[in-house]
Amino acid sequence: MITIDLNCDIGESFGIWRMGNDEALMDWVSSVNVACGFHAGDPSVIRKTIQTAIQKGVAIGAHPSFPDLQGFGRREMKLPEEEVFDLVLYQVSALKGICEALGGQLHHVKPHGALYNQAAKNSSIARAIAEAVKSIDKNLILFGLSGSFLISEAENLGLKTASEVFADRTYQPDGTLTPRNFPNAVIKDTSLAIAQAIQMITTKTVTATNGEKIPIKAETVCIHGDGEKALDFARNINLSLKKIGVTIKPIAR
Fold first, then answer.
1. Which residue from 56, 187, 229, 231 could staple onto 21, CB 3.0 to 4.6 Å apart?
2. Helix (H, G, I), strand (E, B) or coil at 10
């Protein structure tokens, strides 16, 4: 029997009256990654999002990023490893404290946007992130791009990891995500997103943009919560996976 985690990036808004599909999305995923305020989110959104996640019984993760509100954390920033350590330490510590104040528990950490992509390719940035997470709680799970430095550096430090794949993004032949400024970087068709998720989970491969099937390890599947069809993707991927006998639940700590 195959078991997979379905995760979604949420809390990426400002003001609790503008939280969009977040609450509905939690009915179809097993884990959520809550924006920590550096690329999106504010104290009210963070509190409400965590409260809802606790009520829905989904695993709660921190979603730290570069300090880039205007660019939604998706613009490259060249920061020294010490600053990366500090910004991850700050954001994850805040999320952990809010979770515990509300009666919940922080389960994992998943970097966002440009920070995530840099950590996939740069071992020093990856190690700084992993060291910050370990310094907060060595039992936290670090989510990272499958086959990336973020996974290997975290494992070298003794952290538990979750190899992440994406239902709504295309892949390059080297296993990295297609940059968002490239054509067809984002998958917008529900049937294609379902097919890619099923392929990655059941065959341990993904078809790159050049048509080549490349190996991939899938332990958690991401659906971007800010996508225009995020709720449709989450619902249909959930139902399609269950239909073929896949069990959906959070990564065990």
1. 231
2. strand
